[in-house]
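Re-run with default settings, no changes from the original entry. Doing this only to confirm the output is reproducible before filing.
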Amino acid sequence: MFGRRVPVKYVLLFSVLLALVCGGTAIYFAQQRSWIATALLGVLAIWFAVDALRAWSWKKK
């Protein structure tokens, strides 16, 4: 932000953390049979997991 990049390790860490939180919350809402919340949180969990994979591939380079 403002001309400075966020280090890749922080992007990876926060993406994995947010994917786990969203996935766990989606599972909770699935057990409560709240399907709209489950779908939204599931999509967010997948989004953050893909972002973590992309950050991991950047770190390998």
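The longest helix spans residues 35-60. The chain has a mean pLDDT of 90.
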